[in-house]
Structure prediction request, 518 residues.
Amino acid sequence: MSNYLKPLPKIDERNRAHWDGAREGRLMMQACDHCAALRYPFSSLCPKCQSTGSSWKEVSGKGQVWSWCVFHRVYFKGFEGEMPYNVVLVKLDEGPRIYSNIIGVDKDKLRIGMRVRAVFDQATDDVTLVKFEEDKS
Amino acid sequence: MPDQSLRNRAAVIGVGTTKFGRLPGNDTYDLGAWALREALDDCGLKASDIDGVIVNRIPDYQRFCEAFGLNPRYALMTPGQGRMSGATIELAAMAIAAGMAKTIALVYGNDGRSAGDKYGGETDRYGSGGAGQFFPYGMTSPGAVHAMMFACHMHQFGTTSAQLAAVSVAFRKHAALNPNAVMRKRVTVEDHQESTFVAAPLHILDYCLINDGGVALILTSAERARDAKKPPVYIRGFSQATKLEESALPPEDYWYGPMQAAAKDVYEMAGVKHEDLDALMIYDNFSPTVLFSLEGFGFCKQGEGGDWMQGGRLELGGQFPTNTSGGHLSESYMQGWALNAEAVRQLRGECGERQVKDARLIQYMCAAPLMTSIIYGSDAT
Prediction:
């Protein structure tokens, strides 16, 4: 998979558990050790209580489309072959909103409130991305 | 609210703008210096009369002052984000009231077009600079953030892209009357609807125009302003609010809550109501920002902006002529600075074919994670 041309996440100690989880098919989110609030983007400080300790918690991967857009302009060369492509902001049932892509839904069928569930899309040997598909259950 | 005693304490006495467009060979220092020379000419002052300088988007205040030959008592620089234009003007008004400087030059230079700025992709540092975490999913650019916000507005309130077109149509109509505007060909709602998508639901005609240019404003105290070459334009009220928590993601309320707070403060400080305003200058990085601002500052109820903007309400001759220069969508993306210059020129009656008749009060507003508003007046009442 060395021909993967899209941007890859910069994996470091602050986010490694999320990406390790994705490789195992689990959606791991950062939780404050003090107030239990989940936070995204990942950061060293809890914006709700300013505590520094955090742990990684597996969440259901279920949520709904909070908003969407469809890119018709190439900002990253790696996406050139699949224009136009969607980006969604998913509101997880556990609270946080995360950016991702919806797989298997036509761009004209994207709608706010659509129920979705996480799917795990292997990008390279080291990186698996967390994407979503429509949850019809 | 800022102390009421600050009302009309500072005034703009000089404005300068460069040409806008593709100006190769000019870096931000050159463009800022060009604008400042124009502003000094405009008010009849010499460089040695300036005792305060704040540069914006120009990377180094020291190098700018060295090159221009300035030794101000007070110098500062602010980050090159559009939301900082209003914040910088407000700071200058406060610095003058506090006696930190008597006459402050605010100098902005932008070489974004020649530098190839795209506001998306690997160099995207929008907002908190945290955008890089979203690149693996292809998420980038402030335009896409605003596209997502507009998609929410469409879903929540039934607003349509065709309604939003009223913004692009009005501003282009104004640009057609502005010799310094970059895009002057009139457009229709159909043109807007048929224009290519960048980040759908936004079309290219919903996007600002990245260009090269510079703007300078010269401010002084109201007392000194009375001796200036041209009639002073008073800073009658100003306010600021933020929504920075969770600002790596779009706000859940289109910044409505903090804008309502900023609105209350600015109208109270200025002693002005909506119906007193002769024109509006609204930060238009993307056309939805205009819609969100009109709702946030209370010109209409939240959710009704799509309808409210119809019928030429924002056009010259309408109830609230807005961005009479063409704004960022059609004149040039000068990150709020040129809109403030336009407010001054309108209040002086210098706008030729696009002049708002007898303009006395104009409000600038900018909706972003840090939002500002300034009300300018042609007299110090």
